[in-house]
Amino acid sequence: MNEKAPALFWFRDDLRIRHNEALAAAAARGPVIAVHVAEDPDTTGVRPLGGAARWWLHQSLSRLIGSLAEHGIPLMVLRGDPRRLIPELARRTGATYVSWSRRYHRPQRDLDAEVKELLRAAGVEAHSFPGHLLAEPWTIATGQGNPYKVYTPFSRTLRGVVQGDIGSGQVHLEKIPGNLHGPGAAPESSLAELESLALLPSHPSRREPDWTRGLDEAWEPGEEGAWRRLEAFLDSLTHGVGKQGYAEGRDFPAMAVTSRLSPHLRFGEISPQAVWSAAAALQDDAPDVTVFHNELIWRDFAWHRLYHRPDLATVNVRANFDAFPWSWDAGELAASTAGGRDGRRSIRAAEPRDFHTDLSAWRCGTTGIPLVDAGMRELWATGHMHNRVRMVVGSLLTKNLGIHWRHGEEWFWDTLVDADPASNAFNWQWVAGCGDDAAPYFRIFNPVTQAKRFDPDNTYISTWVPEHGGSGYPASIVDLRESRATALAAYEGIRQ
């Protein structure tokens, strides 16, 4: 009996085998050949990954290559335009079926639609499936059929949909399709193709110092690492950590309470449905589980808004903020990182109070404001920052220092392992006050008060700013009270 024609599966932000509907559909059609395409931003318009995300992608793909090889599935790693590469690969391999998980940002959606049209014109079946969200953005709407712009009603609707679809942890989302197989894998060849993408700073073509040691120590990318991280988090929910559980303790940066699943979710190494279901299985109405589910819903809300506002990373959602006097330099980050990733010290700083100097101090964690400095150093060392601290450093940049939120968004895009097109831009607009359902502009986080409340013993600050309290620690670069008054006066100006 002749072997079925192969099916081609296109990996993007779903780097997993378990609970992958699009991969299961390919497996049902025949032996699977997998492909990952590093898309050329010059031809596709898709934003290139930042440095920390490139590191994570390399690690995740290398592990995926090994996992697929156990099933005889080769992963071809290519660079270029998928509109040319995917149809060409289908023709070369004889694949009569191609599938992938959907993406939700307009440049990617448009590209995927073109690929689908080209494949179908060539007589190849092409199908897309739900991607990396709890619900497709177009399925959640108000009673009038409009997209939600406010989180609370959005969360109520989405929670009802998810609970109906998933139930209370009874769906076995962790299983691998029983018919998953391929024509035979050559992992050495795939790893060589991956190396040719030059995602790591140590690659000869990148010519920059290797800054990844802290990332190596902090993370375990890949599907297996995602499930281990989830199991550890669920164990902490069951047995508790310290005096506070997740609902209260998640605001304390020195406490090991948060899930740290965000980069795994960002690269689709585990599905949000699996995470939701596993947490719900503990006790669906427990406060810790409810609050954790709210965080997953917030992630979907960001993608929901990006789906309807594809310019979220560059344009104020609230147009009146276009007149806000934020300091902005369009080419600053590109110029600062031209010689490598470390753009913490701006090459354009000219005068002692020039905003480039303040921006450099913020990036370096040398503002003289302990909680802010701790967060920025944690970010640089590990590719991550505690969420409470993210809000504090964002507030300082946009309100006390008067620097445009886009400078912060760009820096986080380059340095966060969990930076994605939706959450990064959405959260920056939220903290700056110019986004959907944003924190009111006059809500200005006082980093000193925040430290006293959420790091009362200076445990987090001491970890990242050991010189704090000594003579070598700098004075604050900004007067918090005066800068707050200046920010509020500028806000009143655009309101009027």
UniProtKB/TrEMBL annotation:
Entry EC no(s): 4.1.99.3
Binding site for FAD: Y246, T258, S259, R260, L261, S262, F292, D418, A419, D420
Keyword terms: Chromophore, FAD, Flavoprotein, Lyase
InterPro entries, sorted: Crypto/Photolyase_FAD-like_sf (IPR036134), Crypto/Photolyase_N_sf (IPR036155), Cryptochr/Photolyase_FAD-bd (IPR005101), Cryptochrome/DNA_photolyase_1 (IPR002081), DNA_photolyase_1_CS_C (IPR018394), DNA_photolyase_N (IPR006050), Rossmann-like_a/b/a_fold (IPR014729)
EC primary class: lyase
Reported cofactor(s): FAD
Keyword Oxidoreductase: no
Organism: Corynebacterium comes
Residue stretches making up the Photolyase/cryptochrome alpha/beta domain: 5-134
Marked site: Electron transfer via tryptophanyl radical: W326, W405, W428
GO process annotations (BP): nucleobase-containing compound metabolic process; response to light stimulus; response to stress
Protein name as annotated: Deoxyribodipyrimidine photo-lyase
Molecular-function GO terms, alphabetical: deoxyribodipyrimidine photo-lyase activity; DNA binding; FAD binding
Keyword Lyase attached: yes
Co-factor binding comment: Binds 1 FAD per subunit.
Gene3D superfamilies, alphabetized: 1.25.40.80, DNA Cyclobutane Dipyrimidine Photolyase, subunit A, domain 3, HUPs
A UniProt-annotated Pfam family: DNA_photolyase
